Amino acid sequence: MSHEERIELAHRQHVKYFMRFLNILPSSLSSHDTTRVTIAYFSVCGLDVLGSISSINLELRQRIVDWIYQLQVHPNKESGDMSSCGFQGSSTINIDLGAANSHYRCGHLAMTYTGLCILLTLGDDLSRINRKALVEGVKALQTDEGNFSATLSGCESDMRFVYCAACISYILDDWSGFNIEKATEYIIKSINYDFGIAQCPELESHGGTTFCALATLALTKQLDKLSTEQVEGLKRWLLFRQVDGFNGRPNKSVDTCYSFWVGASLKILDILHMTNYGNNRKYVYETQDCVVGGFSKWPDTCTDPMHTYLGLAGLSLIGENGLLEIVPTLNITNRAFEHLKTIHQKWATES
Amino acid sequence: MSDSGDSDIAWTLYKDRPEWKDITPVSEDDGPNPVVVIAHSEKFEDVYDYFRAVLKKNEKSERVLQLTKDAVELNPANYTVWQYRRDLLKALGTDLRSELDYVESVIKQSPKNYQVWHHRRVLVEWLQDPTLELELTGDALLQDPKNYHAWQHRQWAIKTFGLFSKEMAFVDNLITEDVRNNSAWNQRYFVVNNHLGWSDLNVQREICYAMEKIKFVKNNESAWNYLRGVLLHDKRGLSGNAVVTSFCEDLYKNKCRSPYLLAFIIDICDEAIKKGELSCFHNPDRAIELCTALATKYDKIRSKYWNYISEKFKIAKNEQEEKEKQQENGDKMDD
């Protein structure tokens, strides 16, 4: 117990860490050029989990909101086509294109999902989104198999984007772009012989894709489609991911991010309390950088915004002091989720 | 991959190249007050300014094909550049074999990048020729035997083109090298499930294979999970296969207390109870005893879980005793 008391959240440093990422990044991060919105998501939502959303002053808040809206791809001006609609991850291809190649400028499901989360977390009322168009953009990306591609512009399709599409549909409170039956079928087909869930049927079970699948089933209210055997098997597989922290696959190294991916999956199944919080907490803190802030996947390695956010989110799931509560399915704080509910109410009265 | 532009002495910016004079670069419009700004190198900005310009013009030419190579080198995760490159390959009728070589070299540099593997897959689909895929993924798995991207591509190629014939030997090698390689165990299941089939003979052979590997390393989740997976295809289930049940009891007798073994015996008990086939080894009391051992000694980190499982057996036991009592009463009434 004495050791557990010694570990402390470097709260102030983490706030500074996220504020730096919201500002300017070195050229060594050029390979993240098309996914800048996700970095903004980890930073904004990370500050929120830290209870420090007010560190973002009104001026910065407005800048972030305006920047996100600027990345929204609108319906084709001539044809009215909405299949490209969504949010882009950056302004790299934020240019007007002619009819022959307008499809290169298109939304990306992970960016639409994280972009919407940022807007919600910053208290925006979503009044500038084109709901109908975003739903059509989701619809255009579901495959015959039931899963989703990320974007129209040539891309793989797998469980990650099933999850992003489910989150978008939930946030927009409109499931007309998401075939729940087909997606559920795809998820159930991706359950493996060890009862974990994979990126696609027959691949190896994985903690991250299991989260994507389970959160989707929860958001679409389809958890009851799993048999008792599947649920019990899944519980076992997930609980066996705990070593001290959690790993993502049997016999792989423990990694901070799985304290969230596996932790949130267990929370969705309502059995997170069966894990050992003390060991989990201790591992996550071993990956904390107390000097400049941030968390890394392993002790004494480089921190990054994703592991920092997921480390904090994982700690929040087990009730760490000083952190806001997380909604495990959508991966935003309860505070942001309450705001979403008021938006849903408003939409319901308008329609 | 990081931007190596600064150390590239001989590099000539596109804006300084005479053969590109006809193109007016288009700079990025990131709005008046952007956030999460990346301070790209001059080379990066220059290449992407020209990429935007040709995209806008929809130019399909050899020089643009070269430009996409530079753009991809600076950011292999840019899926739009890859897509435009594929459209160029089609429009220009480029030799796709040389493109296979090229993407292979990019995969070697960025083996965990989604876009490069997707590009590879499209090329193989176009060519309808998977002859290089087993070697390519084999090389990637030599570097990292658990590379998810490589396994995904390999499974796709094998399934699409029916390349199963040598896969079992490949898998066996990997498991021999590292018996804890869960990806390899998963691939073994994939091969049996899609190719060899779950005939009685194959089921028995796979059971023996898993047991051999468990004897070698007992506390190996991957092998235990595989054994359980194979038994999904055995009509007799977990509890009805004497080879398996006596294997477990032998391990137990020889003081093995791996949580995977104890969990397995608990599951055998569970099945035996459900089937109404109780024995001195497989009954609620044994299961409860094992749950207690796991919770208090052998798997303390999951003690709450084992207590939860134990509770289920206690309920089952009570129900059973209740039933027996009723039976007795019924018998007495009959007397």
UniProtKB/TrEMBL annotation, chain A:
Pfam families: Prenyltrans. Its cofactor is Mg(2+); Zn(2+). Its EC number is 2.5.1.59. It comes from the Eukaryota. Keywords: Magnesium, Metal-binding, Prenyltransferase, Repeat, Transferase, Zinc. Residues 9-332 form the Prenyltransferase alpha-alpha toroid domain. Belongs to the protein prenyltransferase subunit beta family. PANTHER family: GERANYLGERANYL TRANSFERASE TYPE BETA SUBUNIT (PTHR11774), GERANYLGERANYL TRANSFERASE TYPE-1 SUBUNIT BETA (PTHR11774:SF4). This is Geranylgeranyl transferase type-1 subunit beta. It comes from Loxostege sticticalis (Beet webworm moth).
Automatic annotation (TrEMBL), chain B:
Keywords: Magnesium, Prenyltransferase, Repeat, Transferase. It is an enzyme of class 2 (transferase). The keyword RNA-binding does not apply. Its EC number is 2.5.1.58, 2.5.1.59. It comes from the Eukaryota. It holds the Pfam family PPTA. InterPro entries: Prenyl_trans_a. Signal peptide: none annotated. Its cofactor is Mg(2+). PROSITE patterns: PFTA. Belongs to the protein prenyltransferase subunit alpha family. This is Protein farnesyltransferase/geranylgeranyltransferase type-1 subunit alpha. It comes from Loxostege sticticalis (Beet webworm moth).
